[in-house]
Amino acid sequence: MAFGQEGNFYGKVKYNSNEPAVATFIALKGMDIEKETNANINGAYNFRNLPYGTYSITFYSVNDLPKTVNVQLDAKDKEVNVTLEVAALDEVFVRSKTEQQKIEEKGFAVSVIETKEAAIQSIQVNELLDQTAGVRVRQSGGLGSHVHYNLNGMTGNSVKVFIDGVPILNFGPSFSLNSIPPSLIKRIEVYKGVVPPHLSDDAMGGAINVVLNGITKNELKASISAGSFGTYRADVNGGYRNNKNGFTARGSAFTNYADNDYEVWGDQVAVALSAGTPDVYIRAKRFHDRYRSQGGRAEFGYTHVSWADKLLGAVLLSNMDNQIQTGATMEIVYGNRFTEQTTRMFSLDYAKTNLAKNLDVSAFASYSRLKRKTIDTIATQYSWLGYPTSYYNDPDVWASGAEAGDPTLQEDTDQTINSRTNLAYHLNDNNTLQLNHLLNTFSRDSDDPMLPAAENALKETREYLKSILSLSFENKAFDEKLRTSIFAKSYYLHRTSKLRTRDSNTSEATISIDENNISSHDLGFGGSISYSITPQLTVFGSAEKALRLPDADEVFGNVADNLNASINLKPEHSNNYNLGFSYDNIRFKKHSFGISSNVFIRDTEDLIMQLPTGSNEEFFENSNVGKIYTEGFDFTLSYNYNDALFFSANTSFFNARDYNVTYDVDGNPITPTYERLANTPYFTMNYNAKYETQNFIQKGSRFSTYTNLLYVHEFFRGSSVLGGSGKTVIPSQVSFDAGFAYTFPKNKVSLSFDVKNILDNQLFDNYALQKPGRGFYGKLTFSIL
C-alpha cells in the first residue's frame, strides 16, 4: 500500500429498468472510516479523499433490495456502477443510519455538529457551538478569556465539556475547546438537559462531547492564521498507523497569541481627566490583556488489533500566561496583574468490544499536575487611558498595596487523578446493560512568599473527591423503531480544607486556620424514549432527577480568576424534562429540508451561580440562589438545494424565574417575585447561509462562502426588580459574520478569509464585559503528507 496516497470512488446507481436510482442512500465503510451520501437526480454519487484500502459500499433504495459491494481502492479514481434488484412486495426495507441519526434516535435532546467544513475556516469551536439551537457561549472578552456555556437555561459548571468522553478539566486551562484545531474533531455532540449515562459525570444541565478523529491514514497537516487585535494561531497534527501490527502514533501541537487590544466603550469606560472633575466617557483600547498559550499532545499504542480496539498512552504538555485587564466587571482596570500556568498530564486509554462474550469494556485513567502563579505586587492605579491615574503628577496607589488586594506571588499546585470505566453487557441484540463509574480526586497546595513568614507558615490544604456510579438498561424494539433507556446514578462527594482566616484587616490581626470537612451522598435516576414513525420522522422524550456537585474551583476559589472560596456551597438538584421531534431528509427533487424542535422544563433547587461581589464588583463568588423554575423551547430549520446551497435557522427561548419564598419579620411567607434570572440571555436567534461549488477557477478545486447572523435579545444584568450597579440592562445585540474558503486542486492547500462582527456592534456576555469589535482573519491550511 502506497504511503499516504488517497483516491476517490465515483459511479452511478440505476434500477433494472435502466432508470437512474434517484436519492439512493449509500453507506461506505472501511479503514476505520464511515461515510454516507445520496445519489443525485442522475443517480450519480462520489466519495472523495479516501486512503488506499478495501471498502464495502452498500446501496439502499425504498423500492429495491439493498446491495453491498466490496472493492479495493488502489487508484486515484475508481468507478463503481451498480444496478439494484427490484424487491418483492413483502420485503422489509431497512436503511442504514448515519452516526448522527443513531445518536439522535436514543431519545436525548441532542444536536450533532459536523466540523469537516469548518476545519479550513478561521473559526473556533466555540463559534460553531454558538450557532447551535439552545446553545449560548458566554465569553468574557477576546481569545483566552473565560468561557461558560448556557444550554437551555442551565449554565456554568452545570454544563460539562468532554473530549472523547473524558472531562476536559483534566487537560488544564490552556487546552480548551478553542485550543483544539477543528481538523482534529470528527463531530461535537451537544446534549441539552438529560445526558446519557456513559458520560458518567454530574452534567446536570447538559454536556458537550468532542469526538476526535480516529487514525485512519498516515497524514500530517498544519495551519496558520492571523487577524485583528494581534491574533496569531498555528497548529500541526498528524497520525501514523502500521497496518500490519496495529502500532499507532498521533500527535498535535498548537500555539496561540493575542494582544486583545480592541476598543471598549459605554457607561463603565469612564475617566477623570483631572482632580475633582466629573468622569468623562470615552472609547478606549484594552491595553493589558495579552494572551499566550502553547501545548502539545502525543499518543502511542495500538489500535484495531485482536486484543484491543485501542490501547493508547498519552502525554500532554501546555502552558499559558495571561495579562489580567479587569476585575469581575469593567469598573476596575488593571495594568500590572497577570498569571502564568503550566500543565502536565499523563493518561492511558483502553477499549475492547467482546472482551468476553457480549461484554464491551472501556477504561481511561489520567494524572495531571497544574502549577499556577498569580503576580500582583504593584499598587499603582490605572485608568482606561492606559496609564497610571495621577493627580498633581503623583500616581495614585491602592491602599491595599496591590491592584486586587494584598500583594501576592501566590503559587498553587493542583494535582488531579481521574478515572472512567464503562462496561456494557449485551443480553441479546435488543437489550444492553451498562455500568459506568467516574472517580475524580483533587488536591491543592499553595505558597505565597509575599505573606508574612508567620502567616505563610500556616499551610493551607484543599482536598476533593468525587465518585459517580451509574447503572443503565437500554432496549430496542419494533425493528429498532422504539428505543428506551432507564438509568440510576449514585453521587458521592467528600471535601476537606484548611484555610487561613483573620479577625481584622489590621497589622495586629490574629491569623488562624479554619478547618472544613463536608461529605454528601445522593441518588438520581432518569430515562429516555424515542420512536421512529418513519425513517425521517422521530419523536423523543427524556426525564431525569439530576444532581450537580460543586467543582473544586467553585468551593476552594482561584486567585488568578478573582474567584473567592465558597466553602459551604451545596450541590444543585434539578428535575429535567425534554420532549421533541426531528423530521430530516425531506426531499423534493433537488430540495432537501429538515426540522427539529425540543421543549423543556428545568425545576432546580440550590442553583449555583457565579456572581460579582464587593462594593466595586471586583471579585466573583459562587452562591446557591435557591429555587429556579425554567420553561423553554428551541427550534431548528435546515434547507439544502442540490448539495450546493445550504441554509439553517434556529431559535431558542427559555423563561427562568425565581420561585424562592421569603418570610417577613412575623414568619409569614411572602409570594415570590418570579423575576427573571439575572445575567442570563433568554432569547437568541441564529441564521446561517452557505454556498459551495466545485471546479471554481481551477478544475478539482472547491469554493465556499458563508454568512452568519446572531441575535441576542436584551437581558437584565442584575436583578430585574432592583437592577445592579452600572449597566442594568444588557441591550439587544446583533453579530454578523461572513467569509469564504478556497481549497486548491488535490485537496492539499486551503485558504480562508473571515470578517467577524462586520457591523462593529457592541457585544456583551457576562456582566457587561465587552467582546471584540470588527475583526479580519485569514487562515492557511495545508497537508504535508
Automatic annotation (TrEMBL):
Superkingdom of source: Bacteria
Family: Belongs to the TonB-dependent receptor family.
InterPro entries (UniProt xref): Beta-barrel_TonB, Beta-barrel_TonB_sf, Carb-bd-like_fold, Plug_dom, Plug_dom_sf, TonB-dep_rcpt-like
Subcellular location(s) per record: Cell outer membrane
Ranges where the TonB-dependent receptor-like beta-barrel domain occurs: 293-758
Keywords assigned: Cell outer membrane, Membrane, Receptor, Signal, TonB box, Transmembrane, Transmembrane beta strand, Transport
Annotated GO CC locations: cell outer membrane
Recorded topology in the membrane: Multi-pass membrane protein
PROSITE patterns: TONB_DEPENDENT_REC_3 (PS52016)
UniProt cross-references to Gene3D superfamilies, sorted A to Z: Carboxypeptidase-like, regulatory domain (2.60.40.1120), TonB-dependent receptor, beta-barrel domain (2.40.170.20), TonB-dependent receptor, plug domain (2.170.130.10)
Domain TonB-dependent receptor plug: 106-207
One Pfam family matching this protein: TonB_dep_Rec_b-barrel
Any GO BP annotation: siderophore transmembrane transport
Origin organism lineage: Bacteria, Pseudomonadati, Bacteroidota, Flavobacteriia, Flavobacteriales
Protein name per its UniProtKB record: Outer membrane receptor protein involved in Fe transport
GO MF assignments: carbohydrate binding; siderophore uptake transmembrane transporter activity
